[in-house]
Amino acid sequence: MTDHTTHQQRLHGPGLTDVRMMKVAHSSFRRELGLSPAAVRGVRAGDQRRTTTVADHVDLFLSLLHHHHTIEDDLLWSALLTRVPQELAPLVHVMESQHEQVADHLHLAHQALDRWRRTASGADGEMLAELLAELCTALFEHLHAEETHLLPIMVQHLTAAEWEEFTDQGMSSIPKRMMLLGFGMMLYEGDPDVIALELRKLPAPLRRLLPPLGRRAYRRYARRLHGTPAPQRGAGVPA
């Protein structure tokens, strides 16, 4: 088996496929889902307008997470199992179990979210907040395991074209009307070097305009949703 310790922090470099964008995506999931229980609990019972605002946010990230895990299974996991089954053998059970746990929590959270959206009741909001907290516990454990054990394998055994397809499909799940906001969410905590690489793919005018516009869009959104233009960074990251 390859020594993972050697490659654990090498997620890019000569002869390797740069998979650092995965950690950028994970930072947004950790922050926005990690802060969601507090956002739900901050809604006054019976405030239908505020309930809708927060519910839309939670629904967006639950859907993005489901899509993220679906394309991981379809595009990454199956390819790696074919190429390096011996390296993945110790991880298969853990990763499959974690995905199942996250999927179960996602299902329950979606049900509770639909109920809270309809009723705007305090009790339904508290139930949703508790389920989101449980989802985050399972999700953050999985993301840490993925970053620690899977990314070092991906960097060596996925092609650049396969990774590009994965990232393209990941971006396609963000509603077009929210693309600017989505970019701002990634900018907020994402590795600047990785963001710069993504920007290089765009025409020069967009490379200049997107960062300030994206940051502004996220500041407005965060103020409306979290009550501050600068919400807590590093939510869900192991100490």
Would you write up a description of this structure?
There is one protein chain. The protein has 239 residues and is mainly alpha-helical. It has two domains: 155 residues, Four Helix Bundle (Hemerythrin (Met), subunit A); 59 residues, no CATH class. The chain is 78% helix and 0% strand. The chain is built from ten helices and no strands. α2 runs antiparallel to α6, α4 packs antiparallel against α7 and α8 crosses α10. It starts with a helix and ends in a 13-residue tail after the last helix. The N terminus is likely disordered.
Order of secondary-structure elements: HHHHHHHHHH
Structural class designation: mainly alpha
The CATH homologous superfamily of the largest domain is called nmb1532 protein domain like
Low-confidence stretches: 1-8
Q: What is the general shape?
A: globular
What level of helicity do the residues show?
A: over 70%
Number of domains: 2
Which CATH C-level class of the largest domain is it? Answer: Mainly Alpha
Indicate the CATH topology of the largest domain. Answer: Four Helix Bundle (Hemerythrin (Met), subunit A)
Mean pLDDT: 91
User: Helix tally?
Assistant: 10
**What is the radius of gyration?**
18 Å
Main sheet makeup: none
How far do the termini sit from each other? 28 Å
- What is the beta-strand fraction? under 5%
- The counted number of beta strands is 0
- Please state the second-level CATH architecture of the largest domain: Up-down Bundle
Protein name: Hemerythrin-like domain-containing protein
Organism: Kribbella shirazensis
Domain Hemerythrin-like: 18-153
Pfam families: Hemerythrin (PF01814)
